[in-house]
Write a structure and sequence with these properties.
Elements (H helix, E strand, L loop, with lengths): L1 E6 L3 H12 L3 E7 L3 H11 L7 H6 L3 E4 L6 H10 L3 E5 L6 H13 L4 E4 L6 H6 L8 E7 L11 H16 L4 E9 L8 E8 L4 E7 L6 E8 L2 E6 L4 E9 L9 E4 L5 E7 L8 H15 L7 H19 L2
Parallel strand pairs: 1-2, 1-3, 3-4, 4-5, 6-9
Antiparallel strand pairs: 6-10, 7-8, 8-9, 10-11, 11-12, 12-14, 13-14
Helix pairs in contact: 4-5, 5-9, 7-9
């Protein structure tokens, strides 16, 4: 079993601690949190070993799970990687693209693996439809959240939209050609509502909307491709696949048939992919263990996390140019 330690014992850090403690692929050694009062409380309530310094924790483990505020991701990852430890870094990978690129360089130099916590890749609804998404040409995403003061220190693009950016980049195998975006600050110093239009070189267009001041939560994506429409509800973990094929010569009474102006007839039919319930955070952590043990490529690489961050900042740049 891989020995793992967690940096950061905040809201998400405590979830990681609990799941790593349950995992059959890791041995949870302990955690470090610079807030001594919080660290004492977590250690007392859950029995996890509390380390007194980052260095002490890093020296005791094989894998460092970085669940600290984004501003410290780079420094924590750098210290762990230069000590020869594998790193799991929560999203976004770092505060700047330059920091992310240095993390990639260091990981290669020290021959360690890294994965970024873009957890929606492990959402069961997305996993059920992932192989059915083939060359989408139009994508629409809505990620709306009720107001929560936690996270408002960064633009909504880095807080919420980056999830959808990563998912889109994972299914569109083409370079980004152009980006147009707008953002509005309502109650924060940075945009709380944002919309972006990403155009790819292959002609695909993605329209993304994110808000953290909505009256209800929503996390939906729709993928449109030749002869198919795929809907993924990341929040309620549901999906729908609607396909079209050439209509039979003698359709049944209940067959859904469309006919265009030229007389071409298509039959609409539905697929309901099996959704296998899972814990997405546990899955992302355990697949990282598999990548280390089997010397394979992690599902969400450091490069993936860096590219998502790069596109996020290109979107933010559009706000500042207006």
């Amino acid at each position: 079993m891989l020995k793992v330690g967690v940096l950061g014992a905040g809201h998400l850090g405590k979830i990681h601690l609990r799941l790593l403690n349950q995992s059959q692929k890791y041995e949870l050694v302990g955690f470090y949190d610079p807030n001594s009062a919080n660290a004492d409380k977590v250690a007392k309530e859950h029995g996890y070993r509390k380390f007194d310094s980052i260095e002490e924790l890093i020296n005791a483990v094989d894998v460092v799970d970085i669940v600290t505020p984004t501003l410290s991701h780079h420094d924590c990852a750098k210290e762990a990687i230069t000590a020869g430890k594998h790193v799991f870094v929560e999203k976004p990978i770092s505060n700047t693209v330059e920091e992310a690129e240095e993390i990639i360089t260091l990981a290669k130099q020290h021959n360690v693996k890294g994965q970024v916590g873009h957890v929606e890749r492990f959402n069961p609804a997305f996993m059920a439809t992932r192989e059915k998404i083939a060359n989408p040409m139009f994508i629409e995403t809505h990620r709306l959240a009720e107001f929560n003061p936690r996270g408002t220190d960064v633009p909504v693009v880095l807080d919420l939209m980056i999830h959808d950016i990563d998912v889109i980049l994972s299914v569109v195998k083409s370079k980004v050609k152009d980006i147009k975006a707008s953002g509005v600050s309502v109650i924060s110093d940075t945009p709380d509502i944002a919309n972006a239009r990403i155009e790819f070189e292959n002609g695909c267009v993605a329209n993304l909307t994110a808000s953290r001041i909505s009256l209800k939560n929503m996390r939906k994506s729709r993928f449109f491709q030749k002869d198919a429409y795929i809907s993924v509800d990341f929040l309620d973990k549901m999906c729908e696949v609607v396909k079209m094929k050439d209509a039979p010569e003698e359709p049944g009474d209940f067959d859904m048939i469309l006919q265009n102006a030229e007389g071409l007839k298509k039959q609409i039919y539905f697929e309901n992919p099996e959704i296998v319930a899972n814990n997405a955070i546990l899955d992302e952590l355990e697949t990282f263990a598999d990548a280390i043990n089997n010397n394979t490529t992690p599902i969400v690489t450091l490069e993936d996390g860096t590219e998502a961050l790069r596109i996020a900042y290109r979107i933010i740049d559009c706000f500042e140019k207006k």
